Amino acid sequence: MTLSPVSKFVATLCSLLVLFSAFAVAQLKIGSGNTAFADPPVPHPHTTPCKVTLYKQFVFADFNPKSFTYTPPAACPGPWAKVILKANFSINQGRQFDRTANIWIGPTNIYFGTTAEPSHDVARHWSVERDLTDYSSIFTVSQAGTVDLFNLVNQTYTGILHGSASLLFYPLEQGQTPPRTADQVIAFSGGPTGGTVALNTTTDLLEQTLTLPTNITNLYFDVFAQSQSNDEFWYTCVPNDVAGELFSCPGTAFRESEVTIDGTPAGVSPVYPWIYTGGIDPYLWRPIPGVQTMNFQPYRVNLTPFAAMLDDGQPHTIALSVFNADSYFSATASLLLYLDSNSTQITGGLTENTLAVPAPKIVENIHTAKNGNIHGSVTTRSGHNFQISGYVNTSSGPVTTTIAQNINFSNLQNFTITPSTYVQNINQGTTIKSVITTQNAGGKFTDTVQDEWPLLLNITLLFNPDGSGSQATTINQYYGRDQQTRHNGQATYFSLTQNRVTPTDTLDFDSGGNITGNTNQTSAQDYFSSNSTGYCYSRSITADTGVLTSITDGVGCN
Questions:
Q1: Residue 408 domain-assigned?
Q2: Mean predicted confidence (pLDDT) in 415-433
Q3: Do 228 and 329 meet the contact criterion of CB atoms below 8 Å apart?
Q4: Labelling 93: which of 26, 269, 305, 534 has CA 20 to 30 A away?
Q5: Contacts of 30 (CB under 8 A, 6+ apart)
C-alpha cells in the first residue's frame, strides 16, 4: 500500500460493560504510543470455552503463506453457544508498510484486516476478535489452515511481524437451545487453502458454478472487498477526463460490489471506505487506527428470495464483482446455506426482482483561470431502490421472504489548485435502508436495518518556493448501524452500533518529498453499542502527539 495519492505531492449491557472495560483497559495505557482502539471484544458466554490454538508466534518476514493444522476440540464436540477467533499481532520498532492479513480454515476466510505501521521508537501489539458462530459447520472436521501476511523485510524495511491465533469454543449452558447456524459454508476464494482474488476491472469476477442442495430455505453471502493499489484511495478519485488536470486518480469516486446469480443482479454489497495505517498520512493513525482497519467486517447480502430457484438441482453461477474497479480489489466471500432437515426437495419461486446494475451520475464543475489556477467541484451519485421477493414450500409450510433496499451513495469533492496550494475536500456518504419481511405460519416478521457510512476528508497541501511544504489533513470516519425486529407489528429486538474516528495532523516534507516531521497531531475514537438484551458498551479514547491521553467508559449506558 502507498502513502497517499495526494501526499505524493500531486506529482506522485451495562453490567457487561464492567467486564468488557476491565478486559479492554488491560490493553490500553495512557501515555503509551502503542496501537489503541475503543472497539469492544465479542460478548462471551458464561461457560468455560475449549481453546484450540491455530498457530503460535509465527514470524512474517517474507511473501510465503504460513501453514497450520486445525483439529476440532475433542472436549467440546458441539453444538456450541459461540465460536470466537482471537488473534494477536505485533511488530518491532523500525520501518514498515501496513500489511494485509488473512487467516483461512481450508478455503474459508475467518479473518481479514490490516496491520499497524511501527515507528522508529515504538513497537506495536494488538488483539482482535471475530464472532464465527455462523460458520460452526466448518469447524467440525480437521483441515489445513493458512495465514497470508506478506511482508518485505530488508535493510530499509525492518519491521518484522509476529502473530498467534486461537479459536474459543463455548459449550451450551444447561438446557440452552443451540443457536441456528449455517448447515453448509461454501468458500469463494483462491483455492482449497484460501487466498483472495484480485478484481481489477468491472468485468472481473469471483465466481463459482455450483449444484447446491435441494432443500435450502435461507442463504446469505458474506462479502469482503478490500481496496488495494490504484484503488486504495478510490474515494479520492475523479472521472478520467479531469484526472490529469486535478492530479487525481481516475475511475470516478464510486465503487460498489455486485452479486449476480446466472448473470442476473441478485444483491448489492456497498464498499466501506477503510483507511489503513499508512493511508493519507501515517501520523494520523498513531496510536488510534481508522474504523475497522485492523478487523474488517464482512457485508452480508441476503439471497434468501433465490432459494427456490437454487433448489432445482441444476448448476447455477454465483458471482461477485466490483463496479468501477481500477486495479484492484482483493475479494473473498462465503456462501452460508440453511437447510430444511425434514425435506429433501424444496419447491417455490422467485416472484419479483427489480434490482438493476448501477448507473452513477457525475456532475463536473471545474474552472481553469487564465493563470492556470483551478477551482471547482466534482459530484458523484449513485443509488438503488429495489425489491426482491421469493417463496419456499418448507416442511413447516410456505415461507415468503421480501427484501426491500434503498441504497444511496454520494461523493462531493471541492478542489483549489495553484502553484503553491492543493486543496481537496471530500464529503462522502453511503446510506443503506434494508427491510426484510418474512411471512410464515408464525406470522409476519420484519427486520429493518439502517446503515450509515459518512466520510469527511479534508487535505490541504502548501508548497514553498524551494518545493518543501506541508500537508494538513482532517478526517471524520464513521460507521453506524441501527437494527429493529418486529413480529406482527410488535417490537421484539433492537441493536445500535456507532463507531467514529477523528484524526488530524500536519505533515512536513522537504523539497525531495521526504517526510521531515509533523505537528498538530490529535485523534479520537468514540464507540457505542447496545441492544434490547441489556447489553451496553461505551468507550471514548483520545490521543495527542502519538500517545494515548484519555479513556472514558460508560457514557450513554445509564
A1: no
A2: 97
A3: yes
A4: 26
A5: 548, 549, 550, 551
